[in-house]
Specification:
Elements: H1 7-18, E1 25-27, H2 30-39, E2 46-48, H3 55-58, E3 72-77, H4 86-93, E4 101-106, H5 111-121, E5 125-129, E6 143-146, H6 155-162, E7 167-170, H7 173-179, E8 184-186, H8 191-202, H9 208-222, H10 225-239
Parallel strand pairs: 1-2, 3-4, 3-6, 4-5, 6-7, 7-8
Helix pairs in contact: 4-8
C-alpha cells in the first residue's frame, strides 16, 4: 500500500534486510503487521508496538463541546501531500459555505495550491502552516479530522484523543483497527455525505462529547508512555538470550 517509496528502494530494503532470517521487526499496529506479511516473505520475528503520546496531552482538561455554540471549528494536521488527502476536505467544505463550520489545516507543503482553491470558492478554511506543538492549540477546536487515504499509526490523532478532542476519520482499515469505535468515520468518495455528517454535529444530533470522553479513556489504556516502555522492554527481553 506504499505508493511513495521508490520501487528500487523497496526492492533493496526487501533483499538487504526484510528477507533475512536475523531481521526482526516492530510494527505500529496489527493492521500494518498483517499488510506487511501479505506482501513480504519474512523469516524473522515480528512484534506490534504502538507509538506513545506525551504526558502533557493527557494532562489537558477534557474538551467540552458547548451545544449552544453557533460555530463548529475543526482542525487537521499533517504534511500537505497526496496521501493526506486534504484536497478532499476542500471538496467537503464547498458543500458547507452556508454554515458556520470552519477548518484550520496545519502542515508544511505547497500552501498556495490549497489557498487558490480556498479563495476561489470562498471556503471557511485556513492554511496554518507548520506547528511545532499541536498541544498549544488543540483545545481551540471542537473536532479533529483526518481524511487520509492510508495511515500506519498517526500520532496526531492520538494526541487529539488524549487531549479529549473528538475524532472524525476516513473510513479506512488502518484507522478503524487502531481507533475502533472511538471516532466518527466517513467515506472518501462522497463529499456531500461528509458535509452532511458535519451538519449533524453542528446541529447537535451527534453526541461528540460523550464519544470524546470514551476515546480519552481508551487512549489512557493504549498510548501512555509507561505502557510503551513496558512493552518495548518485553520485546527486547524476548530477543535477548537469557543467561
Amino acid at each position: 500500500m506504499d505508493n511513495e517509496t521508490r520501487p528500487v528502494m523497496r526492492y533493496l530494503e526487501r533483499k538487504l534486510f526484510l528477507e533475512k532470517a536475523q531481521c526482526n521487526i516492530i510494527s505500529l499496529s496489527e493492521f500494518t503487521k498483517e499488510d506487511f506479511l501479505r506482501s513480504i516473505s519474512f523469516k524473522g520475528r515480528m512484534f506490534v508496538l504502538n507509538n506513545f503520546v506525551a504526558d502533557r496531552y493527557f494532562n489537558l482538561p477534557q474538551k467540552k463541546y458547548d451545544s449552544n455554540k453557533k460555530e463548529l471549528h475543526l482542525v487537521a494536521v499533517g504534511a500537505l501531500k497526496e496521501l493526506k488527502n486534504f484536497e478532499y476536505l476542500l471538496e467537503v467544505f464547498q458543500q458547507l459555505t452556508g454554515f458556520e463550520i470552519y477548518l484550520d489545516i496545519y502542515g508544511d507543503g505547497d500552501i498556495p495550491k490549497y489557498e487558490r482553491v480556498i479563495n476561489n470558492n470562498d471556503l471557511k478554511v485556513k492554511m496554518m502552516g507548520h506547528i511545532d506543538d499541536i498541544a498549544t492549540v488543540i483545545h481551540q477546536y471542537d473536532l479533529f479530522i483526518m481524511p487520509s487515504k492510508f495511515e500506519g499509526f498517526p500520532l496526531s490523532l492520538f494526541e487529539a484523543m488524549a487531549a479529549g478532542v473528538p475524532l472524525m476519520l476516513s473510513d479506512i482499515g488502518p484507522l478503524r483497527s487502531i481507533v475502533k469505535e472511538h471516532a466518527i468515520y466517513f467515506p472518501l468518495n462522497d463529499a456531500a455525505s461528509v458535509a452532511a455528517i458535519m451538519q449533524q454535529i453542528f446541529n447537535n444530533t451527534i453526541d461528540i462529547s460523550g464519544m470524546a470522553v470514551k476515546a480519552k479513556a481508551y487512549a489512557e489504556k493504549t498510548v501512555r508512555r509507561d505502557i510503551y516502555i513496558k512493552r518495548l522492554l518485553d520485546i527486547y527481553n524476548q530477543l535477548t538470550p537469557q543467561k
